[in-house]
Every structure is written in C-alpha cells, then in structure tokens.
Design brief:
138 residues; 4-stranded mixed β-sheet; 8 strands; two-stranded antiparallel ribbon; alpha/beta
Length: 138
C-alpha cells in the first residue's frame, strides 16, 4: 500500500507503534527506525522528520540550530538529551544519518509550525536542519 501511495505522489506519513513479535511478546518500533526501513524500499527524493523543536541544536542554551549536518556528528552532545522508549533525538539523528548515507536528503523541521512542513516539501524557505544525502553533495 505504501508503494502505491508513494508512486501516486501522495505523501505517506508514518509514526512508531507497538509491534507483535511472537506469542505474547511485543516491542516498540520507532517511527525513525521505520523510516529507515521504508526509505530503503521506496527510495523517496527526501525524508522529512517532524519534530517539536526547530531542528538539531548546536547549542541548547543559546537555541542555536545546526542548518546542515554531515556524517561527522561527533560534535553533537547527546549526554543531556532526554530519551524516550523510541530513542529520542539520538535515535532520530542516527536513523537520519543512515538514510542520508543512502543518498536521500533528510530534513528535520518543527511540526508545530505547519508552514515549515510545506516549505520542506516544496523546497522553499527551509527552516530546520538538513542532512544532505550523498547525491546532493556533488
């Protein structure tokens, strides 16, 4: 079904959920991990992660946003980042780097500001953090 949706220019929206493993065993799959899996199969032109903040902060105290992030993300300090059961921002960045490593751009935008999602989709006035895929780095 997602393949059909993607091929017909409909933008699929996914999120994490509980998944059945076997018998009475369940687990959590994060929306970020799910996006890594789907992007390998669907090969979208870009992936947009919707956040409740403006992007990835270079400096949390100053609220300074990284406009672009490359595969050398060692400068990001995750030690003070609160994580949830799906892995929080650390997981989001890890999965985004996997996706951009396959050549797909990943944009992280504030979903509480809907115009930013529209701008990310259309490629105009982007506000957030971009992880450039290999094909964009040329």
């Amino acid at each position: 079904m997602l393949q059909y949706i993607a091929e017909n220019s409909i933008i699929p929206i996914t999120f994490g959920d509980i998944v059945h493993i076997k018998n009475r065993t369940y687990s959590i799959i994060s929306g970020d991990a799910l996006m890594s899996i789907l992007s390998k199969i669907l090969r979208p032109s870009k992936v947009i992660f919707v956040l409740n903040v403006d992007g990835i902060y270079k400096d949390m105290d100053k609220k300074e946003i990284l406009k672009e992030l490359n595969n050398n993300h060692n400068s990001i300090n995750f030690s003070t980042v609160v994580q949830d059961v799906t892995g929080g921002m650390r997981r989001k960045v890890t999965e985004a780097l996997k996706i951009c490593g396959t050549g797909i751009d990943v944009l992280m935008v504030n979903g509480l500001k809907p115009e930013r999602i529209v701008n990310a989709i259309t490629g105009t006035d982007f506000e957030g953090t971009m992880l450039k895929g290999l094909r964009s780095r040329k």
